[in-house]
Design goal:
By secondary structure, the chain is mostly helical. It has a three-stranded mixed β-sheet. Helix 5 packs across helix 7. The chain is elongated and about 55 Å long.
Length: 185
């Protein structure tokens, strides 16, 4: 029934969004029964972390063919496929909102407004000039401070983070214990 329902959805963006919400095995079954052109088109419309969840369960030959055809085939996808699906590395979404810690709230808000590609934004991650994570702030703090306020003044430097090898259960414990919406990997 799910397979028939997906086929009835003419808007492929909507179909991709729906498939991404399904259990990985159901999504895999739906896509495996589709022609390869449809499969690649749907996967191209999904968020990178959702694509890797589905594609990693494909048979090796099909996985390589599909990855080669995807527009988003890049280091980020290959990096996600390197990690077991039950680890922070396998669950992470590489599309996060970062700004250099010396940027202002106003600059950050302007940059955020130009990032329609981000699926979910819970935090702004502050980085140093080399791209290393040095702090985090939530969107409320960003919006309630004067536009001229530097991020370094409002960011928390006590960042809870995990490594890509961290088991998903441990990540869940951090989320629950510290009431987090996301955890940097």
């Amino acid at each position: 029934e799910q397979k028939r329902l997906v086929r009835l959805i003419e808007d492929r963006d909507y179909a991709a969004e729906g498939i991404a919400q399904l259990d990985e095995q159901v999504a895999r079954a739906i896509l495996m029964n589709a022609d390869e052109e449809y499969m690649v088109d749907i996967l191209d419309r999904m968020e990178l972390d959702d694509v890797t969840d589905v594609v990693e369960s494909f048979p090796e030959e099909l996985r390589q063919r599909v990855i080669h055809q995807l527009e988003e085939t890049d280091e980020a996808m290959m990096g996600l496929l390197d990690w077991p699906s039950d680890t922070a590395g396998g669950l992470m979404n590489p599309d996060v909102f970062t700004m250099v810690q010396t940027a202002t709230c106003g600059e950050s808000i302007a940059a955020l407004q130009g990032r329609e590609d981000l699926e979910l934004i819970h935090y702004l991650y502050c980085v140093d000039a080399t791209g290393r994570l040095v702090g985090v702030t939530n969107l409320r703090a960003l919006l309630t401070h004067a536009p001229s306020t530097p991020l370094v003044k409002i960011m928390s430097q006590d960042v809870i983070q995990v490594t890509p090898e961290t088991d998903q259960e441990e990540v869940a414990r951090y989320v629950e214990r510290y009431d987090l919406l996301a955890v940097p990997v």
